[in-house]
Amino acid sequence: MSAFDLVVHGGVVVAGEAVVQADIGVAAGRIAALAERIEGGDRRIDASGRIVLPGGIETHCHIAQESGAGVMTADDYDTGSAAALAGGHTCIVPFAAQRRGERLADVMARYRRRASVSRLDHSFHLILSDPNEAVVAELPEVFAAGVTSFKVFMTYEGVKVDDAQFLTVLQAARAHGAITMVHAESDAMIRAAQAALLAEGRTEPKWHAEARPPAAEAEAIARAIRLAAFAGAPLFVVHVSTEEGAALVAAAAAAGAAVWGETCTQYLVLTADDLDRPGMEGAKYVCAPPLRNRATQAALWRHITAGTFVCVTSDHAPYRFDETGKFHAGRDIPFTAIANGLPGIGLRLPILFSEGVAAGRIGLADFARLTAGGPARLFGIERKGAIAPGMDADLAIWDPEAAQVVPPGGWHDAMDYTPYEGMRLTGWPETVIARGRVAFDGGRVVARPGDGRFVARAPFGGPRTPVP
Ligand code: URP
Ligand code: ZN
Ligand code: ZN
Questions:
Q1: What pTM was estimated for this model as a whole?
Q2: Nearest CA owner, ligand 1 atom 7
Q3: How many whole angstroms separate alpha carbon 38 and alpha carbon 4?
């Protein structure tokens, strides 16, 4: 018997900032050795001509979760984790969403049940929609279980918190060593804009973008940063979609504030013009914040290369193009009643690879940081996100030359469409290894429902020591 259960050999390995030809020895689910040449191994996988990346970690995805309006996502943990795997991931951190009035113990129990069919290792961010005194008193137990991030919404009926509640959450987060994530859009500005548009009879999907202008995002991000500074608490701004929003995050970080942010693949490759399609086709592109324009895409890419964002996520929010999803309120509806969200977990990494690495905008080390190392460090996923001895053997072997046009329909998920249909993407994951076991290979998901484990995360540690 060899010292290694598995050796991945001959590939170009992305190990932190280093991009080197190396072999990887795996034992008992962990990376045991990284060297120029490793002999032996009970199993050997030839990665010649391939790139070996840390398995992707998707920290913004909605799986088996009801929206504020009560619409259940199409993906459960079985299909959602399968799609994530096919897209080069080895870990997901979806949300556990509190219903107003609900005890946190019940929220966590419900999501642990839902996640029991996950094929991938997973954790949760806790969405707090009702942070009253009793709920805050329950938080220590949630932290102790390794759920060390919350999310609040500044808009959306059913889940939004007001500024006083937001402060309560920030203060509790600070006390317990958690980080608060925020969906930052001004509820007042959106409601005023929506009312004006509807009064003018402007009800088609294309008006969705106008109803959620860049100023609504900028106002809310600025306020969130002020509230976090007042509370002395760290803040993570999710799905930054505007140049002004990105500049606010960058400026706060440059001034030494504990503020971080992400953008999402859809804001890099789609625009608000996609909402203006015949009939209700535009509903396929309704998400919040909304899609913007080409100039904003260029600005977000500039912020990616400047290091403003910790990660680029998918905000996978899969609602089918039918009555279970987009049209839960009927077919003949104004844009305000369409379920918000786009699917994208399976294509997040191929899109970022193709548009980022293959297009020459970012390097392989940047790609690994934005898709694995960055989120792992920020969210306390200590044993994942890097290829180094001692880390979980979570690896994705990519063929950088493979090119494919995204076909219609879902992409390994439970969806009936993808907003990325027709995109030609260069660079695809070929084999995914999760804790040392082949989990996806040659187009087939091999990992079974239930193979994934819950990952207890460390408390928020500020700008953590760099991943090795
Ligand atoms: O439109 C979106 N992004 N829906 C999912 C929920 C959220 O706002 O993140
Ligand atoms: Zn959001
Ligand atoms: Zn989201």
A1: 0.97
A2: 288
A3: 9
